[in-house]
Queue: 3 jobs
Job 1
Amino acid sequence: MSWMVTGGAGYIGAHVVRAFQAKGIDVVVLDDLSSGRRGFVTDGVDFVHGSILDGALLESVFARHDVRGVVHLAGFKYAGVSVQRPLHTYQQNVTGTATLLAAMEAAKVARIVFSSSAAVYGTPDVDLVTEETAKHPQSPYGESKLIGEWLLADQAVATGLAHTSLRYFNVVGSGTPEIFDPSPHNLFPLVFDALLDGRTPKVYGDDYATPDGTCVRDYIHVADLAAAHVVAAERLEAGEPVAPVYNLGSGDGVSVAEIMSAVAAVTGIDFAPENAPRRAGDPARIVASGELAARDLDWRMRHSLEDMVRSAWEARRAAG
């Protein structure tokens, strides 16, 4: 019997797969490799190249691998790009999730851990986001993730589906040098690529109402995130109570300027970031409480900011 990880060849998904392996839980990966990398999947893990939009394929995977639960990470994750590609975003994230849930129902697979996002909150007007903070997504991506949560909740009423959704904030770092974040949109890859190319990293806005004037965000280490998925899956399988949603947040924040200082210290590259104009829609601060996840999912920040930067830098350099 196995758990299926959709999107398991991606940066986050590959770490989740390794976390399951570390607990001795068999895993099968389904990924269309649109953004994932086959090389991120460890030897010995069953890999299926395919899409969550292919219901027949999903049902065959469930049958062949005796799947007992799903961790659903597959989807289109670029919030900014989703504004230009809303139909693609909804197809991948909403239609894809509905297709997956239909295949699960047909195969009597009744447990799912869903990869949601802080994007469901939009620009919150509170210092510390909780699961009850109002949801005002500001992109098709954020909207699609909120709809995904609704689909799970509705399917639970209809079929008894056991589920929980994990809302991520800024996921960084690496649990192994073999896996790096290849995103062309995330802060760490942008800064590292600039330094490796001999360019100066940019800070977008230094006049926010924050201690140093730069945006404050909630950064969490990808290995900590992965571990929470395993605990969530184990609780679902054991029939233990779980909340419908959890914020995986630090309860604290790190500014962009602090990130830049940490990068300079870890890499040994002395640089002063270039100040650029603010980007439209960037809130001054987004930080979430992880108290509920700490209570139920053994969630805690096991890695410091230096750990996050160092592990991410080592993985990026190993990638060449």
Job 2
Amino acid sequence: MTTVAVVGTGVIGASWAALFLDRGLDVIATDPAPGAEERLRSALEGTPTDRLRFVADAGSAAAEADFVQENGPEREDVKHALFAVLDEAARPDVVLASSSSGLLPSVIARGCPHHPERVVVGHPFNPAHLIPLVEVVPGRDTAPEVVERAMAFYTSLGKRPIRLAQEVPGHVANRLQAALWQEAYSLVERGVATDADIDAAIANGPGLRWAVLGPFANQHLSGGAGGLAHVLRHLGPPTEQWWRDLGRVHLTPELAETLVAGVDAELAGTDPDRLAAARDAVLDRLLAAKAAQPDLP
């Protein structure tokens, strides 16, 4: 593959474009929003853009592509209209991958009357040009070879794709995040802790281990010589009690206002662009450190 169509150039699309360009691919980008090309080129400052072209419509981008990465709004009607255009314009052998963070690929593929078998979700994590994870999710009609080609393509970019055995709303990582957010929001609602307290608890506690190993591997190490079996025997019963005490939260306007006020207070005086740059700099060093450790899975 030498040419990728990036359809939708917001935060995720721009990040994909940066990665594709950095890996030496030709990128044909498109986005109908006024000023989209200027915003994309601004977002790509520091990335060589001699292999970038911006075209007016999604069909033109898809017609020349070897792979399509779609990044449109999370709305079924928009996806259906957009994928109808992509399905009509792209060669039959071209994979149509959606960055959707939660829609089912079978639902997205309803917009493809010709080749629904080439639709797959390829969900990255923001910032997509840094975070290795890509969730590859086939739909009911997705051909096995399409999944294999998507996995191989993302792997060739240096990503760490995982293949889901079945489609579920939100895929895997967002569902795990949602479980944490539910309890975090509940703890704020109940007055147990502030936004800043909860951020500090994760960023200075389990989040440090989660950046190195996943929940099962970390639990296994916590069990010493007995591993995960020991942890489940000794911490399983109290963990079940904690599960029963977890909050069932409703995101009311009042709670949303409390959460926003809390993060505003936590980050008062902090420049968002500098904060994101600092995060990305740490991610760069962390990823390099992980890559230098051959014993990590």
Job 3
Amino acid sequence: MPYIRAFAFVAAMAAAFVFLVPIQTIARRRGWAVQHSIQTGFCRLMCIVIGIKVAPAGALPASRPRFVVSNHVSWTDIIALASLYPLVFLAKSEVAGWPVLGFLARLQGTVFVPRGSRKDIPLVNAALCGVLRGGRDLVVFPEGTSSAGVDVLPFKPAHFDAIQAYDGAAAIAPAAILYTDGARPVDVGWYGDMTFLPHLWSLMKRGGVHCRVAFGDAIAFEGKDRKALAAETEAQVRAMLHEMRG
């Protein structure tokens, strides 16, 4: 089975480079709605090929755009979330150069931020605010790094300035992600000195991974500073994660 998954993965990536990338590039430049179907359809295919079954609970708020705030377990969070909704993500700048992941990130219009560069935060927040003004839903992982998914790391408040600078109606939408084998949590993270291809191969060999995604109630942001918003969102994401683990 993992060999079939590996063959399907290579075939899907090759087909994407030949057919989807040119269409998606034109669609994004011209604002065609088909870009959203391409994104969600391709990410659903990737989840199937790798062996991840996405199980959502709840939904994003009806009012758009949505500022989605989630815990971060692995790079697979991106394809899992994007298989449900057409989303724009915030990622560290080095992701753009990663094999496979960089391609997926660029295909989805990811906003890249230099790691540890505080002077670039205002520019990044301006770009994020521009995404919201364009009517697109945005995802940030305010932990600033991935984790084993056992608990939620402290949320950094820096990019909550983007939602406060937005001058229209928007919703802060908390989301919690948990990976299980159907019963118990499993570690699908890529971290430390792991190289990507062996990590991807281990995922394919494992197969049968369930990615549970819970969406919480929208959080009002009027009258709150970025630290208060980060703390309130973190508390709700942590509560959802603990409920899923329970």
